[in-house]
Specification:
The protein is an alpha/beta fold. Helix content is 33%, strand content 19%. The chain has one domain (2-211): Aldolase class I (TIM Barrel), CATH 3.20.20. The structure holds D-xylitol-5-phosphate and zinc ion (ZN). Zinc ion (ZN) is lined by residues 5, 30, 32, 63, 172, 192.
Amino acid sequence: MIAPSILSADFLNLGRDIEMLNRSHADWIHLDIMDGHFVPNISFGMPVIEAVAKIAKKPLDVHLMIEKPERYLEVFRKAGANLLSVHYEGAVHLHRTVAQIRSLGMKSGVVLNPHTPVSVLEPILPYVDFVLLMSVNPGYGGQSFIETTYGKIRMLRRMIDEAGLKTLIEIDGGVNEQNAPLLQQAGANVLVAGNAVFKAPDPVAMIERIKGVR
Ligand code: DX5
Ligand code: ZN
């Protein structure tokens, strides 16, 4: 699956870009929420999610890069999030937080920074629907892919399969048409792509190429 990240979209023409994703092979729409504390950058918030939700025909995959994400779970649900992920590094009571995300009717995800080993996920895996592995340091679009991610995907794939779980593995950062097939081979299920999609001359075709259907 592919989840284009609108961080790299044209915000003056966001409606047009969402319509493009509606028509494309995109599976989810990825929205990056940054607060200037958990990560150095600030992105966008509720009004933008609400506006996107009004016209989006694909599930909204909201990636929280904020401190104390547990304060805002219900607000993000009301804004239109279908999938909500929180960072392992930023959630002190992670088990409670992912349970709340599910009880609000969303798919719950946990995110790991590039330096965090997948072994820390073992106790939480049965309680999440997906794991998002960062393949860049969170905060900015357009950074280059960190190669050690492949090993983390393979290890996590093994953990999930051995536990007999259906947890999806999502990869975020520096994904492009070159590394996409390698990520799929390593065991990834969902690829986030910002720059690769929105800076391409033909984003609809690029989505198909990353997804491997063209
Ligand atoms: C980075 C964000 C990503 C970003 C990916 O902190 O979490 O979702 O939009 O952008 P690219 O694909 O350009 O690396
Ligand atoms: Zn993201």
